[in-house]
Every structure is written in C-alpha cells, then in structure tokens.
Amino acid sequence: MTDTPPPATAAGYDPGLYNADLAPVPAERRDWSWVNMATVWMGMVHNIVVYEAASGLMALGLSAWECLEVVAVAYMVLFLAMWFNARAGTRYGIPFCVLIRSAFGPYGAQLPVVLRGFCAIFWFSVQAYAAAQAVDAVLSTLSPAWASMTPSLLGMQARMWLAMAMVWALHAWIASHGVHRIRNFELVAGPLVIIVGLLATIWGLRVGHGLGPLFAQPSHLHGAAFWSTFAMGVTGMIGMWATLTVNIPDLSRFVRSERDQVVGQAIGLPITALVFTPMGIITTSATIILFGHPIWNPVDLLLALNHPVVTVLGGATLVLATLSVNVVANIMPACYDLVNLMPRRLDFNRASRLVLVLGVFFMPWLWFNEAAGIYRVLDLISGLLGPVTGIMLADFYIVRRQVLDVPALYRHGGRYDGRNGWNVPALAAFAAGGAVASAGHVVPGLAGLNTVAWFVGVAIGAGLYLALSPRRDAHPAEDAATLSNA
Fold first, then answer.
1. Domain extents for the chain?
2. Per-residue pLDDT at 261
3. pTM (2 decimals)?
C-alpha cells in the first residue's frame, strides 16, 4: 500500500528514478496541517538523547540557565535551516532523494542519499536497542523468570533478544501502511509523552521544593572558555538533527501550505525543546535530593525508584518516546533512500521491513560498549551532511531561484543531468566542505573546528557550489510553466 499514487503523466519517466512512493504528492493529497507537523516534531524532540544532553553540557561547566541558552540558539538555527530547506518539499511535493538530484545530478545524488540512509538505519538500530533496554528493565523488575533468562547468543542475553523482538515488532506495526499511519501515531504519541514529562516535572518540583539544586548551580566557565564551550554545545545540539535538516522535505511534502509548515515547525521544534530540556533538569534535580547524586539516564532512574507502577508506566513512556522519534527521523527517511536506490523492486512498505532487518545486522549491543565510537562516527557523518545542507539551500534559492522543472528530476539527460548524471560543482563542494568540517577529528591542530563544524560545512558547501555553478537556470520560460502547474 502506498501513500502517493503515480500521476497520470508518469509516461516517459525513467523507471530507475521513479515509482509511486517517489512521485510528487498531488496538492489534493497534501493534508498535513500545522498540528500534524507540530506533533511529529514533538514526537522527535523528547527522546532520551535530548533528555540527557543537558547533563553533558553541565558536566562541561555550564549552568542550567546557560544550557537553556544553548538549546535556544541551537534550535532556532535548526528551525531556520529546516524552514528554508522544507519549502521545496511543500511547494513541489517531492522527497529529499528526488530534490537533491537538482544539485548533484541523478547519479551524484546517490552519494548524499546513501550517506543519509546509512546514518538513519544506524540511529534506528541504536535507539531501538535503547528502547529494548527499557523493556528489559521493566520486565526484569516485574518477573524473576524474565530476569533468569541469562543464556547468551552473539554476545547478548536471551531476554534482550526477546526485548529487541518486541521493540522491532512495534516499529514494524507503526511503519506498516506508510506515512498515513505514522502521521496518526505521532498525533497521539507526541502530546502524550509531553504530558508524562509534565507529570515527572511536577514530581521533581515537589521533591525539590522548587527548581532544585541543579538550577542553583553556578557557571564554572568564563571568557574564552565559556564561549568555546557554548559554541561546541550549539554545534553538538545541531549535530543531533543534522541528518533531518537535509531530508526535511520527506515530511514537508505532505503539508498543505507553507504557513502550516512554518507554524508547525516553530511550535514543535524550538518551543518544544525549550519546554522539554528544563523538564529533564528539574527531574534530575529531584534525584540528587533522593539519592545523593544526579541520575540522568531515565532507565537507571526507573530502576532506582523501584516502584512497579512507576516502572511500568515510565518504561512504556520511554518506549513510546523512542518509537515516536525512530519512525519519523530514521525509518521514514531510510525507506525513501532505499526506494530511491531500487525503485523497481522496493516500495515504502518493503523498504520499511528491510530497514528493520538491516538494523539488526548493525548489532547495536556491541556498539553500546563503544559509546565514544558511536558518536565519533556520527559526528563525522554530521560534518559531511553540513555541506549537503548548504548546497541544497544555495541550489534552490540562488541557482534555481525557487523554481524546479519537476518532470526533469525523474529523467536522465535533462537539465539536472550534469556530466552523465554527475554534477561536478556539487560533488566538489561536498568533498571540500566535508573535508574541512571533519578535519578536526583527524588533525589534532585543527580540533577547534569541531566546535563549529556544521556551520563551516554549510558555509563552504554553499559558497563553493555557488562559485562553481551558474547563477540562474538555463530555461526560465519552461521553469515558469512548471511552477504554474506545480
């Protein structure tokens, strides 16, 4: 079952570049309102990684209030980047893997698409395993028989294999029947997790008799040290969402208007983040009073509280939060990326099942023993995706002047073909921007670049692409006709 049936004018499209799931969403089928866009973002923003992010910033010496300032700056930058990059999806109804062909060419586009798909499946695997840990914690607390299932296979105990099977099955159920079911799931999951977070915050305020000790902790950084840490925190926050910055058209293609897209993202992204972050800080403040030390990991907190009802409800909330971020931020873009690679063989539903299988082969239980390795790999990928964001923005707003010949995106040999399907300016800008943005990870003397890697990648990617590309498209008359029919 697909969400976007092929238009009647599909004749002449290259079958290696087109199928029903990659086709432009007709205007009459773009039925997401600002409420849908906001709840989708709510479902993504309140996840375990974001919850724990404040602990990392405070461990570096920032105060709780300065953490909120970092969150405000980072998510405002993300909102602006996603607002502008989402516009092409809303206007033309096309996904990221099709839109990127305008800048990279149909063959060259496969490079950022594969990179984005790899990162999506990797993140899905890691986050789904985190949810499986929550399931295991709950069932181990409630059932001695469950806790006794200790035989191991491939480095993981039997009960964790069963917990993973449960979590994978939940992901499969939500992802089945395509984007329509995902939208409806997020309409419930996003607000529900916020409500549970509010209950936890009220508990934290009662235990702490106010905001708690973490909000009373002063900043330990000043001058250059403060600004360096502040910049690193902003870049780190952006890095968590650098992947979605490039593929936001996968979501915005279903939104009915530009206004709905902007309002929904404004509510769901910076506003939700500014509400969710202090929730985590206040709840953690309560753990200092109760246990004498901060507990930032929600699973550890549930085990420490040791209350069956709280454990079950809290564990269910953690699983729900992980599902809500995984299906939209990871499974959905990975499906489109896989369909783009094999449009003759895959549709959205088949691709979603393939994502689940590939997620197991990433063996996340082994990566969890090398957490530093996870973030090192993902930081490198984020550094490479910064230039992709810059190239996409420069191409759509300056080179193409916000006008695309949509049918040409589904054919070889047209205006977006570059040199035999490879657009050299985009490839050169991507390579140069990615190399500079990631240089700090391999050259110790350039480690300072890590604090602004995403910004450097965006700037170099956009600047070099514009320097190597013509300033306007070659067929403005045809583009005008395309726009009038879009």
1. 30-371
2. 94
3. 0.85
What confidence tens digit (pLDDT) does each residue in 155-213 have?
788 999 999 999 999 999 888 877 777 778 877 777 887 888 888 889 888 888 888 88
Flag whether pLDDT at 7 surpasses 50: no
What type of residue is 6?
P
Q: Please state, in angstroms and rounded to a whole number, the distance separating the CA atoms of residues 197 and 203.
A: 10
Residue 293 Cα distances to 17, 83, 302, 466, angstroms: 55, 40, 15, 52
Kindly compute the dihedral angle of the four CA atoms of residues 338, 342, 345, 346, in this order, to the nearest 10 degrees: 20
Mean pLDDT computed over 476-485: 44
Per-residue 3-state assignment (H helix, E strand, C coil) for the chain: CCCCCCCCCCCCCCCCCCCCCCCCCCHHHCCECHHHHHHHHHHHHCCHHHHHHHHHHHHCCCCHHHHHHHHHHHHHHHHHHHHHHHHHHHHHCCCHHHHCHHHHCCCCCHHHHHHHHHHHHHHHHHHHHHHHHHHHHHHHHHCHHHHCCCCEECCEEHHHHHHHHHHHHHHHHHHCCHHHHHHHHHHHHHHHHHHHHHHHHHHHHHHHCCCCHHHHCCCCCCHHHHHHHHHHHHHHHHHHCHHHHHHCHHHHCCECCHHHHHHHHHHHHHHHHHHHHHHHHHHHHHHHHHHCCCCCCHHHHHHHHCCHHHHHHHHHHHHHHHHHHHHHHHHHHHHHHHHHHCCCCCCHHHHHHHHHHHHHHCCHHHHHHHHHHHHHHHHHHHHHHHHHHHHHHHHHHHHCCCCCCHHHHHCCCCCCCCECCECHHHHHHHHHHHHHHHHHHHCHHHHHHHHHHHHHHHHHHHHHHHHHCCCCCCCHHHHHHHHHHC
Is-contact 331 352, C-beta < 8 A?
A: yes
Instruction: Tell me the pLDDT tens digit for each residue of 138-167.
Output: 888 888 889 888 888 877 889 999 999 999
Sign of the four-CA dihedral 69, 71, 73, 79: negative
Fold of the domain built from segment(s) 30-371: Hydantoin permease (1.10.4160)
Cβ-based neighbour number of residue 468 at 10 Å: 14
Listed in sequence order, the residues at least 6 apart from 243 whose beta carbon sits closer than 8 Å to its beta carbon are 116, 119, 120, 123, 329, 333, 381, 382, 385
- The Cα–Cα gap between 81 and 246 comes to 9
Residue 32 near residue 256, CB atoms below 8 Å: yes
CA nearest 483: which of 99, 91, 11?
91
Tens of pLDDT, residue by residue over 68-120, are 898 899 999 999 999 999 999 999 999 999 999 999 999 999 999 999 998 88
pLDDT reported for residue 235 = 81
